[in-house]
Amino acid sequence: MPLVHGTPEKVNTDIKKVLVSEGQILARVKELGNQISKDYAGKNPVLIGILKGSVFFLSDLMRAISIDCCVDFMSLASYSGDKSNGIVRLLLDLRESIEGRDVLIVEDIVDTGLTLSYLENILKTRNPRSLEVCSLLDKPDCRKISVQAKYVGFSIPNEFVVGYGLDLNEKYRNLPYIGVLKK
Ligand code: IMP
Asked: Which residues pair with 153 in a beta bridge?
């Protein structure tokens, strides 16, 4: 699949198909950045990156946002290999208070929704002024709990994907596109 700037993508041999190309990701991230800049004009939102999957998305998204904004990180775990065990654990908490702040959670993907629901429940108790979610990917068919991201990059079918931060046992995060693995 061609990139926005014209060079062909070299596809990793473990990948069955490229679902979202590098060019499509970068174009969509720019649109999301513009939308967020408009919606939060005059505010100074804090973007909370959820480690590790959101790091590439977060760093591209922040650079596509033209207003002042801050960043902080949290880390949660619920996945082992390509299966969620359904039990979410908090591994790393925020450094700064979010009381009275406009908070935007930045996620790589919403799948069952369990991670996001757990996260929203924790963060709501800390009295932010507003709390919204921006997720690069959404798998709406996989929900076990009802959650909705305000900003979504791409809705995708129920397939396990890797690349652009998403991994399988820590592998494939550095692929510049989102792809489906061969069996
Ligand atoms: P959820 O709690 O099931 O919504 O899953 C949230 C987390 O599981 C995401 O932040 C990812 O880290 C991981 N995850 C879910 N689906 C995928 C996938 O297709 N590929 C890689 N990681 C995934």
From this structure: none
Which domain range does residue 57 map to? 15-181
Is pLDDT of 154 > 70? yes
Residue 86's contacts (CB-CB under 8 Å, 6 or more residues apart) are 78, 112, 114, 144
**CA-closest candidate to residue 40, choices 65, 61, 58:** 65
Q: 8 in a domain, yes or no?
A: no
Q: Is 74 in the pocket of ligand 1 (CB under 6 A)?
A: no
Protein residue whose Cα sits closest to atom 17 of ligand 1: 160
- Single-letter amino acid, residue 57: F
- Compute the distance from residue 118 Cα to the ligand 1 centre, in Å: 14
Q: Is residue 5 part of a domain?
A: no
Q: How many domains does the chain have?
A: 1
Global pTM exceeds 0.90 = yes
